[in-house]
Design brief:
A 5-stranded parallel β-sheet has the order 2-1-3-6-7, with helices on both faces. Strands 4-5 form a two-stranded antiparallel ribbon. Helix content is about 45%, strand content about 25%. The longest helix has 14 residues. The chain starts with 5 loop residues before the first strand and ends with a helix. The chain is globular, with a radius of gyration of 13 Å. It contains 5 helices and 7 strands; from the N terminus they run βαβαβββαβαβα. The protein has a single domain, classed as Response regulator (Rossmann fold). It has about 120 residues and is α/β, with parallel strands linked by helices.
Length: about 120
C-alpha cells in the first residue's frame, strides 16, 4: 500500500487553502501551501510531496496546468488533484496528457477529498 504523508497545496484563495490545510493536518498529513506557479514548482521539487492539490488559476494570473506539466518534467510522479471552479470540459482536455492526475470541481468538500485519499491509498 502506498503511503501519503506529505501534501502540497497550491491555492491562491487563502480561505480555501486554510480550510483544506486544517482538515489535512487534522489527519496527520504534513502540509505545505503556496499561491503561485513558480512557488508550486519550487516547493514540489524541495518538499517532494506524496500528493499535490493544484488550483488551475493561481496568483498573478499564473497557471496550475503549466505548473503540473513542469512538475512532471522534473520527475515527480505523485498524484496531482487539479481544482477548478469553471470550464470542466476544457480543463479535462488541457490536463489529459498529464499522468496520474484528477480533477475536482470547486468548492472542494474536504470530507470528499479525504475519502478520495483513503480510496487512493487502499487501491495503491
Amino acid at each position: 500500500m502506498r503511503q501519503i504523508t506529505k501534501i502540497l497545496i497550491a491555492e491562491d484563495e487563502l480561505l480555501v487553502a486554510k480550510v483544506l490545510k486544517m482538515a489535512l493536518e487534522k489527519r496527520s498529513f504534513k502540509v505545505e501551501h503556496v499561491i503561485d506557479e513558480a512557488s508550486a514548482i519550487k516547493m514540489a521539487n524541495e518538499f517532494q510531496p506524496d500528493l499535490i492539490i493544484l488550483d488551475i488559476h493561481l496568483k498573478n494570473k499564473t497557471n496550475g496546468i503549466n505548473a503540473g506539466k513542469e512538475i512532471r518534467k522534473n520527475g515527480l510522479k505523485c498524484p496531482i488533484i487539479f481544482t477548478t471552479g469553471n470550464s470542466f470540459e476544457q480543463t479535462k482536455k488541457e490536463i489529459s496528457d498529464i499522468e496520474n492526475c484528477y480533477l475536482f470541481i470547486k468548492p472542494i468538500d474536504s470530507e470528499q477529498l479525504l475519502k478520495y485519499i483513503d480510496i487512493y491509498l487502499e487501491n495503491s
